[in-house]
Specification:
297 residues; Rossmann fold; Helicase, Ruva Protein, domain 3; 5-stranded parallel sheet; 12 helices; globular; SIS_dom; lyase activity; N-acetylmuramic acid 6-phosphate etherase
């Protein structure tokens, strides 16, 4: 029953929402949003377990698959899409699957979330394996589409995690690693694109970013696997080469070209005195970690 879900309960602080001046509405939204981070902090141990399992999947050549409907599905897709330019990952490595398919990214597909069979079928299309981790996302914690997908993932031996915004969520029963971020009643009753959506965005950011750090996609706090696909990112790539190695602008540009536009290779070449092929070999032997590559003898 929806009546039992805190995400569907009326927020007593906003009962006169339609009578308030705009600034008061904005203040209420901001004040409620501020509670989200604190709710997430309470669940860091659970988030850590999921992140470590994702790292294991990546190291085994597996994938992270987000599965959701509506806002929850869109949050998974957003995080997955951003991993490609930020960390230079293959688009297959982190994927978002949404009930109703690509059309549901922009338009509501009525009834799509009600089919557990479709959740299973959509994962089956991806040739899901035991190397993968499936993270089912549902603000309500009861979406049949997600439950069906988690059941299927369990059946093929994949790791399963869930992210809900209600306590004792139904989807938690179908996940090895459940996360429940209780965000409470929304400013606008039932509009889980608000606090629940914010919580989902924050948690997915945390999991994917920490997992990428865990597999060598960063050096210090720099995203050295960035894909330089526009002028801004090219400038950022060269700036990182200078920042890490202490070289001048001309040298950074030279090694940027010599490394085939790969920051990690350029840095390894400069710091270890290697050519491109040697740097690439070192990085492969060091699981992508620059710090390990430059310390090799």
């Amino acid at each position: 029953m929806l009546d039992n879900l805190t995400t569907e309960t009326r927020n007593r602080r906003t009962m006169d929402l339609d009578q308030l001046p705009t600034i008061s509405v904005l203040e209420l939204i901001q004040e409620e949003d501020a509670k989200v981070s604190l709710a997430i902090k309470e669940k860091l141990p659970e988030i850590e377990l999921v992140t470590k399992r994702v790292i294991e999947s990546f190291k085994e050549g597996g994938r992270l698959i987000y599965l959701g409907a509506g806002t929850s599905g869109r949050m998974g897709i957003l995080d997955a899409v951003e991993c490609v330019p930020t960390f230079g990952t293959d688009p297959e490595m982190v994927q978002g699957v949404i009930a109703g398919g690509d059309a549901a990214i922009r338009f509501a597909v009525e009834g799509a979330e009600d089919s557990p069979e479709q959740g299973a079928a959509d994962l089956e299309k991806l040739d899901l394996s035991a190397k993968d981790t499936v993270l089912g996302i549902a603000a309500s914690g009861r979406t049949p589409y997600v439950i069906g997908g988690l059941r299927y993932a369990t059946g093929v031996g994949a790791a399963t995690a869930s992210l809900a915004c209600n306590k004792d969520a139904e989807i938690s029963k179908y996940a090895e690693y459940p996360i429940e971020i209780v965000t409470g009643p929304e400013v606008l009753t039932g509009s889980t694109r608000l606090k629940a959506g914010t919580a989902q965005k924050m948690v997915l950011n945390m999991i994917s970013t920490a997992a990428m750090v865990g597999i060598g996609k960063t050096f210090s706090n720099l995203m050295v696997d960035v894909q330089p696909t526009n002028e801004k990112l090219v400038a950022r790539a060269k700036s990182m080469i200078r920042e890490i190695t202490g070289c001048d602008v001309e040298t950074a540009s030279k090694y940027y070209e010599m490394s085939h536009h790969q920051v990690k290779a350029a840095v390894t070449m400069l710091l270890a005195g290697l050519n491109y092929e040697e740097a690439r070999k070192r990085l492969e032997e060091s699981d992508g970690f620059i710090s390990r590559a430059i310390q090799q003898k």
